[in-house]
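Good morning,

Attaching, inline, the backbone tokens for the sequence recovery test we're adding to the shared suite. The designed sequence is right after.
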């Protein structure tokens, strides 16, 4: 009898959750009580065709959960929408950075995870998978029991561009730092000073993807990497994890690309996602696979502690529009009151008339 009651309670809870995630919607404009009451990393928001907003992110050990909102202020949990790591699946653990796209009445979840097949016993064997659902609230099931493709190095942080200008689909991702030591003037300086013997780096790549997501077309193209020279205008802010001795790594990750007019904007995060210096920059190009030129305005989103604020570690953002067409960005950050916990923020962003990308944040509701 006890088991029956427990199961009934679970079913009732699931039905209530499903109702919360599938009921009618209201149009919203931006007015966000930062930080949001959503504790996750690598947030992604889908403004779905039902008019509601769905947020996905890194939080569960065995898959992904989602949250839904009518107004971008109050968020209700949808529960776990994808479960991975079962013995029959290609993926094993470390489920990170989900992004969901609505295409032709279906919803596609792109994500990163370690693959189960690991004959060399490497510590990182990340690949990108894709799952599908009839609802933005799931449940999602793998489209195929394998990664989208299998490069000779670990990759994370999938981002997809459905490009109206070319009629093609592009996949963007970050090659992990793992086993990727790179020579640079910073690496030479560290060694000479008795610091890190080597510096590993993560780089952002792009590649055309088959329209059915079953693979890629051609070879991935390197789009973004940390500066090789110390006099590069980007070197100081993109190297802070090294110069602050948080880690012997320089990250370029969490990319998100979109087109505004004839220009492609790709946002990216640099420095350690666990540290205080995680921040966002951007680059522009005339084509979806570059070449990309980093902005001298970088970073366009960073901590505000040095200005008397309470937010640090701001990064892995994306752009979306609300029902009024307002351009917004969602990202995660950490508060000085609890630096071990990642929480979601939403702030306005814009492209100025002269083409500069500006993020108005981080903000915190007083």
């Amino acid at each position: 009898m006890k088991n029956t009651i427990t199961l009934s309670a679970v079913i009732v809870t699931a039905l209530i959750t499903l109702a919360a995630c599938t009921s009618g919607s209201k149009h919203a404009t931006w007015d966000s009580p930062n930080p949001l009451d959503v504790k996750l990393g690598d947030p992604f928001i889908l403004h779905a065709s039902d008019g509601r907003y769905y947020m996905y992110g890194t939080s569960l050990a065995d898959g992904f959960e989602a949250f839904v909102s009518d107004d971008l202020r109050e968020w209700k949990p949808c529960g776990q929408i994808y479960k991975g790591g079962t013995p029959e699946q290609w993926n094993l653990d470390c489920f990170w950075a989900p992004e969901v796209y609505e295409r032709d009445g279906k919803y596609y979840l792109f994500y990163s995870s370690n693959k189960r097949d690991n004959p060399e016993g490497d510590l990182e064997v990340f690949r990108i998978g894709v799952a599908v659902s009839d609802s933005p609230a799931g449940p999602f099931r793998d489209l195929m029991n394998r990664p989208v493709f299998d490069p000779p190095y670990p990759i994370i942080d999938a981002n997809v561009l459905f490009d109206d200008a070319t009629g093609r689909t592009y996949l963007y991702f970050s090659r992990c730092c793992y086993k990727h030591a790179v020579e640079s003037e910073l690496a030479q300086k560290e060694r000479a000073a008795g610091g890190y013997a080597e510096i590993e780096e993560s780089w952002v790549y792009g590649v055309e993807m088959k329209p059915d997501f079953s693979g890629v077309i051609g070879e991935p193209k390197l789009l973004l990497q940390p500066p090789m020279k110390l006099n590069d205008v980007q070197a100081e802010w993109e190297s802070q994890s090294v110069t602050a001795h948080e880690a012997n790594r320089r990250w370029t990750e969490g990319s998100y690309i979109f087109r505004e007019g004839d220009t492609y904007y790709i946002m990216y995060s640099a420095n350690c996602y666990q540290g205080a210096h995680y921040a966002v920059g951007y680059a522009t190009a005339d084509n979806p696979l570059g070449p990309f030129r980093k902005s001298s305005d970088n970073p366009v989103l960073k901590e505000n502690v040095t200005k008397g604020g309470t937010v640090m570690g701001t990064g892995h953002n994306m752009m979306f529009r609300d029902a009024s067409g307002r351009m917004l960005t969602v990202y995660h950050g950490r508060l000085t009151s609890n630096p071990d916990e990642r929480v979601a923020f939403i702030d306005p962003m814009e492209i100025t008339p002269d083409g500069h990308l500006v993020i108005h944040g981080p903000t915190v509701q007083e």
